[in-house]
Design goal:
Structural class: alpha/beta
Pfam family, one: Aminotran_1_2
InterPro entries: Aminotransferase_I/II_large (IPR004839), Kynurenine-oxoglutarate_AT (IPR051326), PyrdxlP-dep_Trfase (IPR015424), PyrdxlP-dep_Trfase_major (IPR015421), PyrdxlP-dep_Trfase_small (IPR015422)
GO molecular function: transaminase activity
Protein name: Pyridoxal phosphate-dependent aminotransferase
Number of helices: 13
Cofactor: pyridoxal 5'-phosphate
CATH topology of the largest domain: Aspartate Aminotransferase, domain 2
Bound molecules: 4'-deoxy-4'-aminopyridoxal-5'-phosphate, glutamine
Strand content: 15-25%
Largest sheet: 7 strands, mixed
Shape: globular
CATH class of the largest domain: Alpha Beta
Helix content: 40-55%
Radius of gyration: 20 Å
Strand order of the largest sheet: 2-8-7-6-5-3-4
Order of helices and strands: HEHHEHEHEHEHEEHEHHHEEHEEEH
Distance between the termini: 33 Å
CATH architecture of the largest domain: 3-Layer(aba) Sandwich
């Protein structure tokens, strides 16, 4: 995790946000919203601070949030959970991923199957857990895994199949056939499934289907989510995971020595958010779909080929028609020439497997409509 000079290598998100700050470019790189989320949620955090929720909360999480996660999973997906044993609150989805891998992997004989490109923390946390990474490629333009490649990657050495659906960075939503194959392979090879569903409410075509709802999946699946994307509170870092009590207990055993607890006043605020009416959840999906459409149209008009995402904050575009040969160099230049920052897709894959992504770029649509329109204008004028 350190560079050759012994210094911390910044993540691609930190690097590109710094580039946006130094060039004054519009930041469509790092995925964070530029507007606040629902007023009820913000007010609930202020009220919790005023009411003295400022000391260590319980290790598993504030009971109100545990209850709210259970209600949310039942309301949206029909999943029944015991808040006292089958749910754990974490410092964002990131801690849930890290603690899960540390808790459930037992050295280099354990393999973790990951779909690549992937969120950068996955490979780092697999390495920290001392486990071995096995990757299944997702290819332009639809980024669905090939079922034969998936079947070859999962073996008796597989400890965990790590799924991210809807997917960062590609915006893909896995097909029913892919989800079913993941469950079938997990059964056949006695593997666990860990699903990162932080974009669960940002889907554009059909309601989200958690893998845990598939027949035979719940008993071997840990589902992870977070309040950051749904309530536009990425800085609060309130996440959670749910699944079989023995697995959740194992993760809690590790989590208590990572952060111990966190976010006391934000936990009840996220509980308030999870209890918002269905119209809120439909509204954020509609809003993000409209933003995706504006961004996509702008990218097409500027000459990119666009892979239309079915979920998440992100759109992947191919800059090859604009003469790009190296996505990273293209992004560095784009900040200067067009005043727009984006992220090269190569940053989400290991160096030896970057060729298929060489000219692909990820743009974040989670920005105000006027910001997206201005970005589209800039891209059309000088890509
Ligand atoms: N997983 C994915 C796929 C993400 O995109 C992100 C955030 N950008 C996270 C996890 C991290 O979530 P949190 O901020 O809740 O730790
Ligand atoms: N998840 C966000 C993204 O993919 C930001 C993550 C981060 O900054 N670590 O852009």
């Amino acid at each position: 995790l350190l560079g050759a000079d012994g210094a911390v290598t910044p993540t691609i998100f930190a690097e590109m946000s710094a580039l946006a700050a130094s060039t004054g470019a519009i930041n469509l790189g790092q995925g964070f919203p530029d507007e606040d989320g629902p007023a009820e949620v913000l007010e609930a955090a202020r009220a919790a601070i005023g009411a003295g929720a400022n000391q260590y909360p319980p290790g598993r999480g504030v009971p109100d949030l545990l209850e709210a996660v259970a209600e949310h999973q039942a309301r949206h997906y029909g999943i029944r959970l015991d808040p006292g044993s089958e749910i754990l609150v974490t410092a964002g989805a990131t801690e849930a991923i890290a603690a899960t891998l540390l808790a459930l992997c037992d050295g280099p004989d354990d393999e973790v199957v990951v779909f690549e490109p992937h969120y950068d923390a996955y490979a780092a946390c697999v390495a920290l857990a001392g486990a071995r990474l096995r990757t299944v490629p997702l290819r332009w333009p639809d980024f669905q895994p090939d079922l034969d490649e998936l079947a070859r990657a999962v073996t008796d050495r597989t400890r965990i199949i790590l799924v991210n659906d809807p997917h960062n960075p590609t915006g893909t939503v896995f097909s029913a056939a892919v989800r079913e194959e993941i469950v079938r392979l997990a059964h056949r090879h006695d593997a666990l499934i860990v699903t990162d569903e932080v974009y669960e409410h940002l889907v554009f075509d059909a309601p989200h289907t958690p893998i845990a709802t598939l027949p035979g999946a719940a008993e071997r699946t840990l589902s992870i989510s977070s309040g950051g994307k749904t309530f536009r509170t990425t800085g609060w870092k309130i996440g959670w995971l749910s699944g079989p009590a023995d697995l959740v207990t194992a993760v809690l055993a590790v989590k208590q020595f990572l952060t111990y607890v966190g976010g006391a006043p934000f936990q009840p605020a996220i509980a308030t958010g999870l209890r918002l009416p269905d119209s809120f959840f439909a509204g954020i999906a509609d809003d993000m779909r409209a933003k995706r459409d504006v961004l996509g149209a702008g990218l097409c008009a500027a000459g990119f080929d666009v892979s239309t995402p079915r979920g998440s904050y992100f759109t992947v575009a191919d800059a090859a028609p604009l003469g790009a040969v190296d996505a990273r160099a293209f992004c560095l230049e784009l900040a200067e020439r067009a005043g727009v920052v984006a992220i090269p897709l190569t940053a989400f894959a290991a160096p030896e497997r970057r060729t298929p992504y060489a000219t692909l770029v990820r743009f974040a649509a989670c920005k105000r409509m006027d910001v997206l329109e201005e970005a589209a204008l800039r891209l059309a004028n000088k890509p």
